[in-house]
């Protein structure tokens, strides 16, 4: 029945337009994998510096103010470099996927995702800056994880719905970290590294593997 | 009962159908975004938007961003009801003819 098929086609079109106009569906799973790898490299570097710092402390036997300040600058710089690398990688893979599917990368839906990620993330950034200012460094990792998780939960309404679960896991991890304060780096590596990689592979497997669009 | 009696003639155009689909899931969409999402030309989209407005299915807000015009569109309650009715009729018809 061609008439029947035509109406079915109409319904499919409606569904597709609704989905496409309200959700940013070009977000690539590979973005998650690359961001996760950046985070793991960053965490490894941070560990190297921390270990070296404690070795120096042990050998001299006294606390050195300048050495501590130096460590802090190194760690913050690493974090910023990792962030830039992760975001660039993410943008690259998403841009590639959008191009492959002939979809615009900068449209209403991507703007919505960006705005909704940025609100909790900016709040978290300011919060973490306040924590550093008050010399409560151990709280930085849990804060980052919780606010990042909230940002993902918030953005999931405008992109792949599975992002919500990643967000919830990041929040839980951040809260768990609050109760195991000195293990921040490990939680950081799991949250930003391992979880991203697992999520990215699952999303890639689910949506991109066949090179087709849903 | 005539199985296609409940279909709404206004929504027979693919572009009008597209406009309604977009407006169902977005609060307010401007002209350029609609154009980009539906991949149609200015004139074509404008005339279909007029038809929808004349039938009271969409609301038009004319505004400015700086000196450039920014016209946004939103669905009306009547439009939402009519579109849902149309979808139900489509669904019913597909089931009915099987």
Number of domains of chain B: 1
Oligomer: heterodimer
Provide mean pLDDT of chain A, rounded: 91
Under CATH, the homologous superfamily of chain B reads Winged helix-like DNA-binding domain superfamily/Winged helix DNA-binding domain
Outline the low-pLDDT stretches of chain B.
none
| Shape-level CATH architecture of chain B | Orthogonal Bundle
Protein chains sharing the most extensive interface: A-B, 17 and 20 residues
How is the largest sheet of chain B built, in terms of strand order? 1-3-2
Through-space gap between termini of chain B:
16 Å
One letter per element, helices H and strands E, the order of chain A comes to HHHHHHH
SS strand fraction of chain A:
under 5%
Domain Winged helix DNA-binding (chain B): 15-94
Protein name (chain B): Transcriptional regulator
Organism (chain B): Chitinophaga varians
InterPro entries (chain B): ArsR-like_HTH, WH-like_DNA-bd_sf, WH_DNA-bd_dom, WH_DNA-bd_sf
Would you kindly provide a brief summary of this structure?
Chain B: This is Transcriptional regulator. Chain A has 214 residues and is mainly α.
Secondary structure blueprint with pairings:
The complex is a heterodimer of chains A (214) and B (98).
Chain A: H1 2-22, H2 29-60, H3 65-100, H4 108-133, H5 140-155, H6 163-179, H7 184-208
Helix pairs in contact in A: 2-3, 2-7, 4-5, 5-6, 5-7, 6-7
Chain B: H1 14-25, E1 29-30, H2 31-38, H3 42-54, E2 58-65, E3 68-75, H4 77-97
Antiparallel strand pairs in B: 1-3, 2-3
Overall description:
- The complex is a heterodimer of chains A (214) and B (98).
- Chain A contains seven helices and no strands.
- Chain A is mainly α.
- Chain A has one domain (28-209).
- Chain A starts with a helix and ends in a 6-residue tail after the last helix.
- By secondary structure, chain B is of the alpha+beta class.
- Chain B has a single domain, classed as Arc Repressor Mutant, subunit A, CATH 1.10.10.10.
- Chain B has four helices and three strands, in the order H-E-H-H-E-E-H.
- In chain B, strands 1-3-2 form a three-stranded antiparallel β-sheet.
- In chain B, strand 2 (58-65) and strand 3 form a beta hairpin.
- Chain A binds chain B through residues 1, 3-4, 7-8, 10-11, 13-14, 17-18, 20-22, 104, 107-108, and chain B through 14, 17-18, 21-22, 24-26, 29, 33, 36-38, 87, 90-91, 93-94, 97-98.
- Chain A: The chain crosses the membrane at residues 24-53, 73-93, 113-133, 139-156, 163-180, 186-205.
- Chain A: Keywords: Membrane, Transmembrane, Transmembrane helix.
- Chain B: One of its GO terms (biological process) is regulation of DNA-templated transcription.
- Chain B: Residues 15-94 form the Winged helix DNA-binding domain.
